[in-house]
Amino acid sequence: MADLILHHYWPSPFAHKIRMAMGLAGLPWTSVEIPRVPPKPLLLPLTAGYRRTPVLQVGADVYCDTHNIARALADTAPEVGERLFPGPSRGAALVLAEWVDQTLFPLAIRAVMAEALDTASPDFIQDRGDLYFGPGWTPEGLRSEAPGVILQLEAALGRLESWLAGLGHCDYRELSYGDVAAAFIAWFLRGRWSRGGEVLRHYPYLREVESALEGAGQQPAQEIAAEKALAIAAQTVPQASTGIQCPSDLVVGQSVGIRPYVRSSDPEVFGRLRALTSDRISIDHEARDVGDVVVHFPITGYQIRSVD
Ligand SMILES: N[C@@H](CCC(=O)N[C@@H](CS)C(=O)NCC(=O)O)C(=O)O
């Protein structure tokens, strides 16, 4: 198997989730550090314009979004899949991970950003506000909603705690990707929100999962420059198969547009459909410096349309 190259920056909570997942899976990985804000000229040729973090590159196959990346990691070998999703834990882990990202993270990012309004650079605030809250958001609105958001955040953390309390883990009897998906929120709140440490004291099961995964996967096997990662893509042939494997009107070779199904400033990404399954869409993309690559997105959380 080609090296697992993670395009990321260290403070990214979603990248932290994938670093922990690779640690739990026992997978060595290669680090490429990318900028925290656009422009990202050495990332976008690989992703057809998708700008979020992290992105996993395996040769000339490029996986966007952590849910998609987690499944790609699990598919690298049966024993890796078993470490990420032991026994029957896969369904619970993926459902919990999606709930964390769709319900808990939007509350956490609001609490963190409301506080960061006073300290972070205006450019960073504008970029992240547009990305996470969509057009029309205002700093005043974010600030005035913060107390209610924090109440919701604590209620959601309580719900997560009651899930973990059942078995001490997300599911089954060992750590799984579901625990990784819970731990990254704790890592984010503790590190980026002044009240994080105090609030987390009320959730001992979440803290236990957080400490069980502390440090997991945070040491890359090697670090390479982004230029080298592009050259690796250019020298490699994509491995992704071709075909439509679920009921759909879409056909191989047609143009499609893909963008996150949330109010945000994310650009739509375009490409020629190469493969479609019930949980992944793969497009052919060609760009200078990388040649032909295949970019993979998950289906849930993304809106796909035909643009022919
Ligand atoms: N649904 C995406 C969300 C990823 C995401 O929002 N990542 C943040 C960083 S933690 C991001 O992209 N921030 C803007 C950027 O890096 O340009 C996933 O699961 O990968």
TrEMBL record:
<dbReference type="InterPro" id="IPR004045">
    <property type="entry name" value="Glutathione_S-Trfase_N"/>
</dbReference>
<dbReference type="Pfam" id="PF13409">
    <property type="entry name" value="GST_N_2"/>
</dbReference>
<dbReference type="InterPro" id="IPR036249">
    <property type="entry name" value="Thioredoxin-like_sf"/>
</dbReference>
<feature type="domain" description="GST N-terminal">
    <location>
        <begin position="2"/>
        <end position="81"/>
    </location>
</feature>
<dbReference type="GO" id="GO:0016740">
    <property type="term" value="F:transferase activity"/>
</dbReference>
<keyword id="KW-0808">Transferase</keyword>
<protein>
    <submittedName>
        <fullName>Glutathione S-transferase family protein</fullName>
    </submittedName>
</protein>
